[in-house]
Amino acid sequence: MEYYPAFLDIEGKLVVVIGGGRVAFRKVKSLLEAGAKCRVVSPVLHEGLVEFRDNGDIEYINDVFKEEYLDGAWLIVAATNDPETQDRVFNAAQRNRIFCNVVDVPSRCSFIVPSVVKRGALKIAISTSGLGPGLSKNIRKELEKQFPESISQYIECVGKLRRLIINNLKNDDEKKRALKILFDLKSAQCFIDGDKQGIRQWAKKIGGEEALKIVRNYYG
């Protein structure tokens, strides 16, 4: 199976999660973090989902799966280990043309969820196309070592410097030169290492004093 990689904007969109256990809780948590509206369908609830329900963070339906509960759904996640329910959810999703993920059952998925490194605006998705989820997890752990939490400040700073370049430099050649310096990964290492001198030199090459002013907001 050859998958098409994509990042989805699910803010404000309804995702129906079938299942109420630990896996369902993890899925709902990440969906809420992405701004989705979640409808959880299950006769039982993990304590974390109980908290979400009591706080009004999710819509909860205390029942077994029924196709009518998919009304208005943009995505479906089936976090249940019952094969019959998995089949019913997937078949209903196919009939209604809704993308569906049956956790850990690639043959019952119209999309799969990768292992993800999250560092602020930086998102690195890793997938083995369902062949080795454990391998994806280990690769993610290695990448997390390479990209510590501090890289999120670097990404934020890069975004502001990019806007500065686009707004201030009218000559295309100068703009290309500045952007090439901006996106040089050596600068990321300076941020990771806390190399203030290296960061300032990098900023000065990009946009002089205005760029330095932006950088000082992060590293003084």
UniProtKB/TrEMBL annotation:
<protein>
    <recommendedName>
        <fullName>precorrin-2 dehydrogenase</fullName>
        <ecNumber>1.3.1.76</ecNumber>
    </recommendedName>
</protein>
<dbReference type="GO" id="GO:0019354">
    <property type="term" value="P:siroheme biosynthetic process"/>
</dbReference>
<dbReference type="InterPro" id="IPR036291">
    <property type="entry name" value="NAD(P)-bd_dom_sf"/>
</dbReference>
<dbReference type="InterPro" id="IPR028161">
    <property type="entry name" value="Met8-like"/>
</dbReference>
<keyword id="KW-0627">Porphyrin biosynthesis</keyword>
<dbReference type="GO" id="GO:0043115">
    <property type="term" value="F:precorrin-2 dehydrogenase activity"/>
</dbReference>
<dbReference type="InterPro" id="IPR042518">
    <property type="entry name" value="SirC_C"/>
</dbReference>
<comment type="pathway">
    <text>Porphyrin-containing compound metabolism; siroheme biosynthesis; sirohydrochlorin from precorrin-2: step 1/1.</text>
</comment>
<dbReference type="Pfam" id="PF13241">
    <property type="entry name" value="NAD_binding_7"/>
</dbReference>
<keyword id="KW-0560">Oxidoreductase</keyword>
<keyword id="KW-0520">NAD</keyword>
<dbReference type="InterPro" id="IPR006367">
    <property type="entry name" value="Sirohaem_synthase_N"/>
</dbReference>
<dbReference type="InterPro" id="IPR028281">
    <property type="entry name" value="Sirohaem_synthase_central"/>
</dbReference>
<dbReference type="GO" id="GO:0004325">
    <property type="term" value="F:ferrochelatase activity"/>
</dbReference>
<feature type="domain" description="Siroheme synthase central">
    <location>
        <begin position="119"/>
        <end position="146"/>
    </location>
</feature>
<dbReference type="Pfam" id="PF14824">
    <property type="entry name" value="Sirohm_synth_M"/>
</dbReference>
